[in-house]
Design goal:
396 residues, 4 helices, six-stranded antiparallel β-sheet, mainly beta, 14-stranded antiparallel β-sheet, 26 strands, single chain
Length: 396
């Protein structure tokens, strides 16, 4: 059996960026992004009684929602010189703060008394390598109290040992304290123990103990748990990709991603996927030792180039690609070598201001195509004609 669903969505957002120059021991520069957004989603009601139902995910509910959100991102940049005179630049996502709320148009039309959802706040703080804090809460605008509140922090060292504590609260449901400790036995083997206590009933909710073995391209977890008198043993195997391994080597890497609808036709999900599957961009010197270090990474096949060696991607193209992938705009990718080359252009206004590319179409709308020629692929986006200007040859 199949089902056909109708869903419509729209987004309206912008991005405000401010660069600070603290020049202290924590950061040379700090970027602050403010992203206000308004989203709308509509899913038509479809009778699904004749379809099998195993859990809540097998039923797609009718939706008519308008959601506002305000997101703040703080990213720091710090450069240092190694004893060998090599400059290493590191970036840190210092803080993430998002505030949002939805308005249910369907509930309002049905004369329900509470069309507004709870106001939700998500926050993550990572001031340094050894401590991180996170918070998520929801506040009812009708009851004037917290509906949920979860606060956690993690302390860790360079060895891999870590201590995690969380306070978990859900109104009229539960209130508990969770703790977990990780002890690094070797570079690859970690033992851990966790316990969750019910603060209201003063009893143990769950205990868990296990071992985690992490290899270069896979990880194995084995654990024992006990909850409400029931005991269980489980194991889990995870496979890693090349991006994870390169990051662990402290090599600066860029993996451009875009959002697309899940291929599962019965799910209304947007998922993040690589813009160029199978490729990542790495920042390296011409030193053969540095390039060999990249090639020795699990999952690496080769550095793209010609018979003379690896070919670098111009920095302007990388910066344009970063703007494209952060602009919340649908991207077009492909390997169509028949794309006709045109004038070099630059986008002047909008969230993609500053993107340089090649003009390929002039039919009421312009399409700016940013080519990554070493990959034989491209990424492009449609913009208004009056937002595009031809670059002088000297700047092309």
């Amino acid at each position: 059996r199949t089902r056909q669903m109708v869903d419509v969505g729209a987004q309206l957002s912008t991005k405000l960026i401010k660069i600070f120059n603290p020049n202290n021991e924590f950061a040379d520069k700090t970027k602050h992004e403010i992203i206000p957004k308004l989203e709308y989603i509509f899913i038509l009601n479809v009778i699904q009684d004749d379809l099998p139902s195993f859990d809540a995910l097998d039923r797609i509910a009718e939706q008519n929602l308008l959601t506002w959100s305000l997101t703040n991102n703080f990213t720091s940049k710090k450069s240092r010189i190694t004893p060998k005179g090599k400059e290493i630049t590191t970036y840190r996502d210092v803080a993430y703060i998002k505030l949002y709320q939805s308005y249910d148009i369907k509930k309002k039309r049905d004369d329900e008394s509470r069309p507004f959802s709870d106001i939700t706040l998500d926050m993550e703080l990572n001031p340094n390598d050894f401590i991180s804090l996170d918070l998520d809460l929801s506040w009812s605008p009708y009851d004037n109290h917290f509906k949920a509140l979860n606060i956690g922090n993690t302390l860790q060292d360079n060895r891999g040992d870590a201590l995690r504590t969380e306070y978990r609260y859900t109104f009229n449901v539960s209130e508990s304290l969770y703790s977990k400790i990780d002890v690094s036995l070797t570079d690859e083997l970690t033992a851990y123990y966790s316990i969750e206590k019910n603060l209201r009933e003063e009893k143990t909710v769950e205990t868990q103990a296990g071992l985690s073995l992490k290899k270069s391209c896979w990880a194995f977890n084995l654990y024992f748990s006990e909850s409400d008198g029931e005991q269980s043993i489980a194991f889990l195997i995870n496979l890693h990709g090349i991006y994870t391994h390169i990051v662990k080597k402290k090599i600066e890497v860029f993996l451009p991603k875009t959002k697309q609808k899940s291929r599962r036709k019965d799910r209304n999900l947007m998922i993040e996927v690589p813009l160029f599957p199978g490729y990542v961009f790495v920042k390296s010197t011409v030193n053969p030792d540095d390039q060999l270090n990249i090639l020795k990474t699990i999952g690496a096949v080769k550095l793209l180039g010609n018979r003379f060696g690896p070919v670098p991607v111009p920095g302007a193209q990388i910066e344009s690609l970063k703007i494209l992938t952060s602009a919340n705009t649908d991207l077009i990718t492909g390997t169509n070598i028949r794309i006709k080359k045109g004038d070099p252009v630059i986008i002047l206004e909008g969230p993609m201001a500053g993107v340089k590319g090649e003009f390929t179409r002039y039919k009421g709308k312009g399409r700016v195509v940013i080519k990554i020629e070493v990959l034989g692929q491209y990424a492009g986006v449609e913009v208004q004609e009056d937002n595009v200007e031809k670059l002088p040859d000297v700047l092309a």
